[in-house]
Design a protein that fits this description.
It comes from Eutypa lata (strain UCR-EL1) (Grapevine dieback disease fungus). It contains 12 helices and 13 strands. It has 308 residues and is of the alpha/beta class.
Length: 308
């Protein structure tokens, strides 16, 4: 019997990190899971739940811990998965020496978004800066992007731009497959279940519910004007968090909702592996948009406020 793959997860109490832990625990592949969490989160509901299911808990603050402490926290891990918050993206840079010294065989830096080119999204540029540093340090890596969450349904533009979607609950199912696959080492991967326009997604919900849903559109001007205003505000005050959030949000909407870059074709152009080509039979238990909407209508989930 193959030895279990030892995986550490940073940011395990966030929505993406929690999904990763759940996916690892449910996987047919044997994983030993370590949740690396800030000391302040040791008694959180999520951490207590993980602890009760056999997850090893290690308290470490990636923003402040010394190199020796980080190296000790990462020691023995085969894979380190990062799902930190956007404010901690650049904190990953201070982990790299420890990752290398600890002998981690694969680092999964925090991406978990939509494919785009450098210069298109402020947040993505931070992530690519981390990837550049990973490659300079010759650390084995895999990045995983997941398109747009099935849970969010605000409509940029006219709603006729194709996108890939993935239910946030299924991120971990895909991550478990991808990090155990030697073909994905030192590669970027796009994971998704569906390819659809937002209008088609709403049409599907209408079909399943028998009702007409309210559709909330954001015009091009309503996306790009605040985007440019946020850039101006950040030039005046780089610490303006309201402007930073507005910039990040509207750049996302512009990229996938207007430019149409959240597609398998564009991802492949950027050098990504396509999850459907890696796993033609799909990933067990993953929810399509149809299944996700059916769960909402059956009362098993709460609907999103953007879809009424």
């Amino acid at each position: 019997m193959a030895a279990p793959i030892k995986v550490g997860v940073l940011g395990s109490t966030g929505r993406t990190g929690e999904s990763v832990v759940e996916g690892l625990l449910a996987s047919e592949t044997k994983f030993e899971v370590t949740a690396l969490t800030r000391p302040s989160s040791l008694d959180s509901t999520e951490i207590n739940s993980f602890r009760g299911r056999g997850v090893r808990i290690v308290a470490v603050d990636v923003a402040t811990a010394a190199k020796a402490e980080l190296t000790q926290a990462f020691a023995g891990l085969d894979v380190l998965v990062s799902a930190v918050s956007f404010k901690a993206i650049t904190d990953q840079l201070r982990l790299l020496d420890s990752i290398k010294e600890a002998g981690v065989k694969r680092f999964v830096p925090c991406f978990w978004g939509t494919p785009a080119a450098r210069g298109e999204q402020y947040l993505l540029d931070w992530k690519l800066d981390v990837l550049d540093a990973v490659q300079r340090a010759d650390i084995p890596y895999t990045t995983i992007d997941v398109g747009w969450w099935s849970q969010f349904y605000l409509i940029p533009g006219d709603g006729n731009v194709r996108n890939v979607f993935l239910d946030v609950r299924d991120i971990g199912k895909y991550a478990a497959k991808i990090i155990a696959d030697p073909r994905t080492l030192n590669r970027r991967v796009l994971a998704y279940t569906d390819i659809s326009t937002l209008n088609e997604a709403y049409d599907l919900m209408d079909e399943l519910s028998g009702e007409k849903s309210e559709r909330i559109y954001r015009s091009i001007e309503d996306i790009r004007n605040p985007l440019e205003e946020a850039k101006v505000a950040l030039k005046k005050d780089p610490a303006d968090q309201t402007a930073l959030f507005a910039l990040i949000t509207n750049q996302y909407l512009d990229s996938w909702g207007l430019r149409g870059h959240n597609t398998p074709e564009y991802a492949k152009y950027l050098g990504y592996l396509d999850v459907r080509e890696l796993y033609p039979g799909g990933v067990a238990g993953a929810k399509s948009l149809r299944s996700y909407f059916a769960d909402i209508l059956a009362g098993q989930l709460s609907g999103n406020k953007d879809m009424k």
